[in-house]
Inverse folding.
């Protein structure tokens, strides 16, 4: 009986180690080098960062206006250029195909 328990325990341990082996090994990466983004990707990332800054500035201006930190007059002077800049950046990031679809839909 004791021998059966020892053999059963050993067999269970071997089975657990066999199943866990892939998870215990350190994977060997094909390459540790990160690919350098191309010119188009760098340009897109710059546009995304500019868009995020413009939208954050708009959000902050709206908040400051609502809380009374910015007067109505100053708000009207600042909100237009910020909205235009955000819209320009959003259009620049929009794929050309959807821009064409939007133009054609507006003509019909």
């Amino acid at each position: 009986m004791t021998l059966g328990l020892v053999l059963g325990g050993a067999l269970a341990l071997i089975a657990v180690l066999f199943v866990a082996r892939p998870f215990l090994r350190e994977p060997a990466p094909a390459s540790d080098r990160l690919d350098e983004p191309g010119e188009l990707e760098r340009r897109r990332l710059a546009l995304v960062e500019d868009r995020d800054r413009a939208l954050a500035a708009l959000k902050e201006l709206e908040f400051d206006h609502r809380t009374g930190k910015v007067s109505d007059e100053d708000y009207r002077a600042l909100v237009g250029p910020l909205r235009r800049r955000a819209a320009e950046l959003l259009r620049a990031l929009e794929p050309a195909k959807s821009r064409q679809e939007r133009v054609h839909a507006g003509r019909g």
